[in-house]
Amino acid sequence: MTCRYAPFSSAGGMLGYLFSGQSSQAFKNIEDKVPCTLSHHSDFLNRDHKTSEHQRQVPVGKNYPSYFCCHHLIFHISGNVNSENEALPDI
């Protein structure tokens, strides 16, 4: 990571919109493409929310945080589904 985005922050987020398929496969695809290791966030175990930890390459002379935690959140768009992609009852 190069400090191009959010250089003054030690955390940020990436949102994903899932129109079909399973969130577990989406998270695997993120791990493969970034590449990174995604971990469950202990405060949000029942939500499609994972984190990855990174060490950034801070430019010389900049006082940016080198550690960066990225939150990855998946939002289901294709109707009422949960993280296992099962239909939920309408309320």
Give a topology summary.
Blueprint: E1 11-18, H1 23-33, E2 39-40, E3 49-55, E4 67-76
Parallel strand pairs: 1-4
Antiparallel strand pairs: 2-3, 3-4
Write a brief structural summary.
The protein is α+β, with helices and mostly antiparallel strands and 91 residues long. The chain has one helix and four strands; from the N terminus they run βαβββ. It has a four-stranded mixed beta sheet, covered by helices on one side.
Write up what this structure looks like.
There is one protein chain. The chain has one helix and four strands. The radius of gyration is 16 Å and the shape is elongated. The protein has 91 residues and is of the alpha+beta class. It has one domain (11-76). It has a four-stranded mixed beta sheet with strand order 1-4-3-2, covered by helices on one side.
Rounded mean pLDDT score? 87
Rg, Cα atoms, Å: 16 Å
Q: What is the makeup of the main sheet?
A: 4 strands, mixed
Portion in strands: 25-35%
Order of helices and strands: EHEEE
- Number of spatially distinct domains: 1
Shape field: elongated
What class, by secondary structure content?
alpha+beta
Main sheet strand line-up: 1-4-3-2
Distance between the termini: 43 Å
Number of strands: 4
Helix share of residues? 10-25%
What is the number of helical segments per DSSP (H or I, 4+ residues)?
1
Low-confidence stretches: none
